[in-house]
Amino acid sequence: MESNQKHNWKTKLHEIIYEADTPSGKLFDVLLLFFILISIVLVMLESVSSIDNKYHDFLYFCEWIVTILFSIEFILRIITVKKPFKYLFSFFGVIDFLSTIPMYLTFFFGGAQALVTLRALRLLRVFRILKLARYLGASNQLKDSIIASRVKILVFLFAVMVSSVVFGTIMYLVEGEANGFTNIPKSVYWCIVTLTTVGFGDIAPQTPLGQFITTIIMILGYGIIAVPTGIVSAEYAKSSSKSNESNNNNESYSTEQKLHLNSQCCINCLNTTHQDGAEYCHNCGHKMHHD
Amino acid sequence: MESNQKHNWKTKLHEIIYEADTPSGKLFDVLLLFFILISIVLVMLESVSSIDNKYHDFLYFCEWIVTILFSIEFILRIITVKKPFKYLFSFFGVIDFLSTIPMYLTFFFGGAQALVTLRALRLLRVFRILKLARYLGASNQLKDSIIASRVKILVFLFAVMVSSVVFGTIMYLVEGEANGFTNIPKSVYWCIVTLTTVGFGDIAPQTPLGQFITTIIMILGYGIIAVPTGIVSAEYAKSSSKSNESNNNNESYSTEQKLHLNSQCCINCLNTTHQDGAEYCHNCGHKMHHD
Amino acid sequence: MESNQKHNWKTKLHEIIYEADTPSGKLFDVLLLFFILISIVLVMLESVSSIDNKYHDFLYFCEWIVTILFSIEFILRIITVKKPFKYLFSFFGVIDFLSTIPMYLTFFFGGAQALVTLRALRLLRVFRILKLARYLGASNQLKDSIIASRVKILVFLFAVMVSSVVFGTIMYLVEGEANGFTNIPKSVYWCIVTLTTVGFGDIAPQTPLGQFITTIIMILGYGIIAVPTGIVSAEYAKSSSKSNESNNNNESYSTEQKLHLNSQCCINCLNTTHQDGAEYCHNCGHKMHHD
Amino acid sequence: MESNQKHNWKTKLHEIIYEADTPSGKLFDVLLLFFILISIVLVMLESVSSIDNKYHDFLYFCEWIVTILFSIEFILRIITVKKPFKYLFSFFGVIDFLSTIPMYLTFFFGGAQALVTLRALRLLRVFRILKLARYLGASNQLKDSIIASRVKILVFLFAVMVSSVVFGTIMYLVEGEANGFTNIPKSVYWCIVTLTTVGFGDIAPQTPLGQFITTIIMILGYGIIAVPTGIVSAEYAKSSSKSNESNNNNESYSTEQKLHLNSQCCINCLNTTHQDGAEYCHNCGHKMHHD
């Protein structure tokens, strides 16, 4: 009986930490988001020397509070999952670990300043809050249209790289080291800066011929920008019209939508795509827990 | 009878000020637009020291004329509305107040120079002229497609922010304070400048590794620009094809169009979406007034 | 009979100069294009002091040849048209006049150097060559989709102007004259530079608050860029799918296409949209002339 | 019999070098891609003086290895093709020659350093790897939509050029040589930099009037960017919906797809669009060879 109670306690915690269906689960997600943002702001403020000089002790204190809270969250995540190693070596497991460890390392080793930046990756965990129902539909459709146009985008990036190398080498020859094009890699870097219409202006062509070639590069870049936009546009329109169609034709679509709105997470395999009334995980067959 | 006459006078003024259906209502809107533009030009010219030194008295005089005219408009708006407090605490009520008060404040307190800029917000009132029929259809469709893709745009902005923080922190580590990346907030700012392809060039990567990472950021930004364009494109195409469909299928569409073309404004609740022949406000039940 | 012969001579010349159907008409258009380009190159080279110093006499000589040729063309255009004044006060009539007169003015007055640039407008005449059949279909569809989205584009430009003025004033307050934001017009200019993602970098925010506001402006600009693209995209897709539909459904479409391919130009009213076998101008009823 | 054996040997080599169907053919393509990338990296590193000073001998040695390998490839390509001259004067034949010859020239002539950059063109050969099935479908659809919108893109580029010349000349007059607009070609160059939203900032308007005109140019550029995007978007959507249609309507589509996935290359005319079971080249009638 005690074991069952303990099991219930673990199950409830799992529901709070991994899911966003219950009020306490939502509260946990909001609190986590809050502390993640606080942590990001702390990292940023520490880097501003004028602020760090004044409030160093306060920032350091806050940093430790956030670190301890993240440590507790990390431990709870490991405890409540049935297969801790699967979690630990998952994308978010690694990020959770990396966002907790730096402060302990700085405590023990002092100079591990560089690792502090690993906490920036902590922001990636923010995407977890996207499990909240209404965001999911949108990001899924986006992901689908990007995956659908994956190969085309690669071909496009490939074309950008090839033209950058070709034009970069030409500009290196035409402008030369005197005008800032000191070597081909730098020339290629400048070429990408120009093709993407960023145009820092730290390096700029000085010779008439160089400026003429730059004109060609810019108009090329201007034309090229149309290509990925057109691709994603078309793919997105396709996928959204497809979802519309199924919406109109059969009622099964609304059921599918509901599936996505469900944020149940299997305690055993961390799979998150469960039907509303599912008693067992459709992936590993483990018993699902509901309130 | 006198009360009725007074009521008629108020109703007529309400029609002139709040609506754009009658010739006098249109004239009022055009005059208002003219004085708003004059006011904006005055604010701008005052800020140019060479012009302000020469024509200070003239500009100051014009400023007072505009202010008095706006004051009269403000008072008339309050008088002709049945629920003045509802107007006062509405978006345009606040802006009308803020665009009138600064000159009086400068008169009484002298140094309230900063408040003068609040008059720039006056330009927002220009959108009122959009009530003119033909502009409304277009902006409504635009607003609809932006609202429809709201969640997706938020997810996209979220992605921009996350990658800016991650890359900003990396660039801060790679380039360091010597090359202008003095702290993480500034680094993140630079990262957004690069991702959005603005590229001021006040800060630019100097190390080969920094330039390599910049290349990745730029191509990422180039790819990312396709996403919101694709979304709005698709949503807009959807909504416009939808309106086309309803246009073709049933005649009720043209009726709906006519509704929008009507610029009647309820004297009681300021609601502006009334049917052409409406005798009572569909929102508060107040009697509508026609010429 | 002589009068008829003269009439024939005028008609033939009209066909050569104003139309591109006959071989001689095409040759005239190509020659005109060639001399326009030559003229543009001459204007450009004259402005390069190192080249002008060396070859001034040669450039001046060429300039006179081009001017005389354009003068002859201008006179022939006036002679062959039935209503010379209509031509003279048309868009191209004014441009033809402005592109001929500067050299004569420099000859008589010497210092009328500024007028030379009017010849740049001569390039606008290049669009005439677009009468050549295959270019017309494309540019017409483009023009249609731009006209269809005219009001929406105006609303969009209006939004850009309003946000530029608001943000420009805020930046003027935040950054101040010390950081290059010397007055509001300059601040607004900088704001448009940033919103359109051009980003010269001649003026750049220096204060942390200014950089934060800049971030908002840039992301706004990034989002705004999606709007006109989406509009034109959707309108273009609509118009092209419409033309496809009519192409599939009825054969009358191909007839319409042929109409556009015809470059006949009425000698009386200069109208250029004539059906292939048209005997009389559908606009003014004047007799058409065919070979 | 010996001749037949020799023929088989040549046929097999042809299959390995020109096709990507067999494991050895794929291996050849991957190895070629690897050496091309190595060669590009070598060219780049040589241009970095700090690296070249240190590792010059090693880089020179690697360069010779790559050159010899490319020479062998070039010779094998000539041998295995039935019509060597057709290959030699084809696009890739010229590139293969140009990417092999520079090192030999530097060996014999010493100072032919400039020709080394011709090796950059070697990167164009990378596109050959695109023959690998899954990339081809995507790039073909892209190519089709670009070809379909070719005329429209030309009209668009033409518009960009015309407005650049007009505005460039105006800016040259307004800003003058004192503010960096030293001549019209440079002014036109600056105008294209601005229109394409690159904005280097090496030249920037200083006078209020110049900045006002720049504002117009930028907003124009902002509006213009929508046009090519809209065109490619619409064309791409059209072509992809077309291919979808044929996919749904008849099964012959999947057959067509398979055709593209086939990377057979005729030994006689180098044509690469063969059906899977083709016994003879559909272009020249030559016997095809299969494993």
From TrEMBL, chains A, B, C, D:
<keyword id="KW-0630">Potassium</keyword>
<dbReference type="InterPro" id="IPR005821">
    <property type="entry name" value="Ion_trans_dom"/>
</dbReference>
<keyword id="KW-0472">Membrane</keyword>
<protein>
    <submittedName>
        <fullName>Ion transporter</fullName>
    </submittedName>
</protein>
<dbReference type="GO" id="GO:0005249">
    <property type="term" value="F:voltage-gated potassium channel activity"/>
</dbReference>
<dbReference type="GO" id="GO:0001508">
    <property type="term" value="P:action potential"/>
</dbReference>
<keyword id="KW-0633">Potassium transport</keyword>
<keyword id="KW-0851">Voltage-gated channel</keyword>
<keyword id="KW-0812">Transmembrane</keyword>
<keyword id="KW-0813">Transport</keyword>
<dbReference type="InterPro" id="IPR028325">
    <property type="entry name" value="VG_K_chnl"/>
</dbReference>
<keyword id="KW-0407">Ion channel</keyword>
<keyword id="KW-0631">Potassium channel</keyword>
<feature type="transmembrane region" description="Helical">
    <location>
        <begin position="153"/>
        <end position="174"/>
    </location>
</feature>
<feature type="transmembrane region" description="Helical">
    <location>
        <begin position="101"/>
        <end position="121"/>
    </location>
</feature>
<dbReference type="InterPro" id="IPR027359">
    <property type="entry name" value="Volt_channel_dom_sf"/>
</dbReference>
<dbReference type="GO" id="GO:0008076">
    <property type="term" value="C:voltage-gated potassium channel complex"/>
</dbReference>
<keyword id="KW-1133">Transmembrane helix</keyword>
<keyword id="KW-0406">Ion transport</keyword>
<feature type="domain" description="Ion transport">
    <location>
        <begin position="26"/>
        <end position="243"/>
    </location>
</feature>
<feature type="transmembrane region" description="Helical">
    <location>
        <begin position="27"/>
        <end position="46"/>
    </location>
</feature>
<feature type="transmembrane region" description="Helical">
    <location>
        <begin position="212"/>
        <end position="234"/>
    </location>
</feature>
<dbReference type="Pfam" id="PF00520">
    <property type="entry name" value="Ion_trans"/>
</dbReference>
<feature type="transmembrane region" description="Helical">
    <location>
        <begin position="58"/>
        <end position="81"/>
    </location>
</feature>
